[in-house]
Amino acid sequence: MYCRALFLFMLCVFRILPGFSQERKDSLGHLPIEYARFVKNPNQLYGFYERVSKGKKGDLSIEVFKSVGKGQGDVVDFKINRLKIPSIDSIEFYIDAKQIASSKINAVKHRIFLPASNKDYDVQAKYEGRIVSTLHVSVLPVVTQHLRIVPLRKMKMNRDSIENELNYQFRAANIRFDVTIEPVFENDALENPGLFENPGSDRSKYTDQMRHVRDTYIKSYKEKTKNGLLFFVIPKFVNPGLEGYMVKNKALGFVVQADSRQLSHTIATEYLDGFANIEAFEKDRRTLLGWGIDNEEWIRINKNPKVYSIIDDYEEVVTNNGLIAYYFFEQGKDGTIVLKNKSFLASVLRPMKKNTYSYHLQIDNILYKTLFRIKSKPFNTLHLLSVIASISGFIYGFRKLRAFLKKRMKKPRLVSFFSRLIQWLGILFLSFVMIKVVDLGYSWFEVTDGIIKSYSGYKEKKVLDLLFDNTHPNKLEEKKIGSELIIKRGRHYFLYERKKVLYFKMNVSKTNVPLKLRLIANSDSLNTAVLDEPIPAESHYIVVKVYSAKGKWLRDQVYNHLGVDLTSKLKLADPPKRILIFVSGYRPTSLGSTFEENFEDIRSNGLEFPNSLNRLFTEDRYNYWHPWKQIDDNFKARINPTEYYYADGHHSVSTSNHRSLLNFSTNSSIYPKRCKNHQFHTCYTTSTVGSKIFGSKRAKTIGLLATRSNKKGFATRLNNGKIAGRNLYQMLNELPNSSANDTLYLVVHSMGFAYAQGMIEQLRGRINFGGYYILAPENATAGTVNLTEWKQVWQYGSNLNAPNQDAPCLQDGVAPQACVKGLSEEQRIYFPQSLYKHKGYFDSHFVGYYDWVLKIQAGKKGYIRQR
User: Fold this and answer.
1) What is the pTM of this model?
2) Range of lowest pLDDT (187-201, 503-517, 576-590)
3) Burial class (CB in 10 A: 0-12, 13-18, 19+), 853
């Protein structure tokens, strides 16, 4: 009996002391969390985060994360449960199998001084040789953010308080803020009691009021808006519960006036929601953010691309290209132009170029007066009458038809059912057709020459803003290059469509001060005394014929639309130039730190930007290339262009081989992730999405790729690329006929391939073709490249349907790769095997991972020759 009792006692002891028993372990292989764990030290400098999860059997496991600065140390504590582990002295700590020192605080707690490092590491806590817990340490470089705060009204703010509070809140991500508070910026956007309009909840656009404040500030302080964050402090929003607003991935924010502490919390929240694109806390937006951000978020914040764009992706930006040049000036009663600042260029404004004339309706027919709008589409009385007539006619006609058929058919109920089905389908079809027919009538009321009554009484600034946002609902481009004149006479504004060269007569004094200015002609030829003979104009020009006060001709001056004086340049020798064009592809609605993050918004709510405006920019307008290790600058350094431009090939997913957002979202969600073991792939078959009744089934993974060519979508992008090609040709020929000896180089990605094909069609025979570098083309089989036209052509991407094909999990799922027509295997270069972690459904397509292209050695296949 005594032996049995002793045995039971020893068994209890064994169960308590883990050093002598077989305890359960959590899913991570550690002892259960109630035994011992790493805990936050109250004096730590950086971040600490615990992630507790429950296993299938209900057991809890914990992962512990710590952030430290690059080359910096920090502290963390370790705590035991003495009922499970008898002594804190029995715990040892290791980094890469090397024991590190710790300091005993009391009987249940140790303090570990984390060493400085330049790379991530793990700290393992061991008890009697077994791992009790692991601390994952993320080493983050310090990121300095320059933050400029601009109050719109006089208010008290403490710079040091705001800066210290922000640094405290973001120390987990190792973000350091350099705060500057600017003087009050007075602005006419605050004509009301200081209320700001409520912005949209999707954080995609700035309001017109916000844009106005920003634009007027830029005019005065352009240098202060670069390479940093800009926050305007406003009195309040119409919605009193709204404390701040910042568009996702942008560097411009608006925050409501408050004391320094609350203001810093609002800025921090907007920094997270907007610039970092991480949703801040919903329960209490004043929570200390530095301790609420988890380990994945602090890494994402730290590595967030430093793109300081203050323009949202929906608004137009003034460029020097477009098929229609806009001019704005004021005329007196005698028809002369009102002179401003004693300057021609100040008197004749040139606000923008677009691809179409502006769209204005002067409806004087009661049947076409707008009754209501559905998604900005107007509906009038004639629309309603035509729909009513369609419905009435079909109902009456089919009622007669059913009565006739019932007398002659054996199964009248079946006939009645199908006749009603056909009746309502017919009603819908005919109503749609009638609405479109009525829409054609709007062209009768379109203003091409005459007064714009809706603008009467507006200020010039308001009119220019309205013109800037005005888009033609039925056109993408005009067939001919032209000019649009908006002329102010009294309180009214008049529109005139004219040709591409405008001629003005200007009388000047003996000291060359303008005395009188008048528009005298327009044409499609550049006819000036500066040239020996008239030449066809390939761009927009302004010819100013300068006369003395007594009417004697003195000289001609020739300007382009930007106002650059071309007079002395028209006869200069034309040097050959290298023209580099970057053609971007699809633009996701977010800018995360990985390409997959970029598509999260699309997969969750189906958001897309509007299709390209088919214009070119002199900088990376949409931050498509530059955020990713300045890949565009690296191409420039290699090609060494004389001039470079950015074209936007973005179009809806519906134009791709996926054919719809739904297809893309479904496919990307079931497609397998990259296999962990590159030598052993388990990705060759995948469970497809099934029904509740029949369930899912296994299918070959390669078969899930969207390889069926969408020729119609490709043609849409190609045709829009032609418009961009026209604009580029116009830009290159502002000095007459100067592109013939230039050489074109193209770097294109994804959907940009189809778009570039359209540009090439428009430029063929007008410029020399140099290098064509195609990165991960979408729907490659729909396009053809003539190798004989180019000096060098390479196609880069994943390997599909070629020798040594990549495993399914490594394929480009966004744009499954195929050989461009006209190219062979000699022109194709595949993703290096060494970049295994940069391959996969999203990653193989991500433009930021194509920096390997520029690392190909000279003499090797795919090398881009130095120019």
Assistant:
1) 0.84
2) 187-201
3) buried
Q: What is the CATH number of the domain that holds 94?
A: 2.60.40.10
- Establish if 667 belongs to a structural domain: yes
Residue 866 inside a domain? The answer is no
SS3 205: coil
Cα–Cα distance, 259 to 253 (Å, whole number): 17
CATH number at residue 197: 3.40.390.10
Does 763 lie in the same domain as 637? yes
Q: Are residues 711 and 832 in the same domain?
A: yes
pLDDT, tens digit, 9 for 90 and up, residues 98-114: 998 888 889 889 899 99
Q: What is the pLDDT of residue 83?
A: 78
Show which of 379, 411, 445 is a domain's final residue: 445
pLDDT at site 581: 98
| 832 contacts 800 by C-beta, under 8 angstroms | no
d(CA 774, CA 820): 9
Q: What residues make up the domain containing 502?
A: 324-362+447-569
- The two tokens of residue 514 are 């303008």
| Same domain, residue pair 605 and 745 | yes
Cα separations (Å) of 685 from 142, 616, 699, 703, 742? 44, 43, 5, 9, 51
Question: Where are the extended beta strands (E) located within 279-323?
Answer: none
Same domain membership, residue 253 and residue 110: no
What values do phi and psi take at 269, rounded to 5? Answer: -60, -45
Q: Are residues 675 and 796 in the same domain?
A: yes
Could you tell me the strand order of the sheet in which 482-489 lies?
Answer: 353-354, 324-330, 482-489, 492-498, 449-451
- Please report, to the nearest 10 degrees, the dihedral formed by the alpha carbons of residues 282, 284, 289, 294 taken in order: -50
7-11, 115-119, 151-155: range with lowest mean pLDDT: 7-11
Residue closest to 322 by CA, chosen among 538, 105, 148, 481? 481
Residue (of 293, 256, 252) closest to 275 by Cα position: 252
One domain, residues 408 and 427: yes
Residue 861 lies in a domain: no
- Both tokens assigned to 601: 């918004």
- Average pLDDT, stretch 544-563? 96
Q: Is residue 434 part of a domain?
A: yes
Under the banding of pLDDT at 50, 70 and 90, the label for residue 418 is confident
Three-state DSSP state, 533: coil
Task: Using alpha carbons only, give the angle 432, 436, 440 rounded to the nearest 5 degrees.
Answer: 165
Domain-ending residue, one of 423, 445, 467: 445
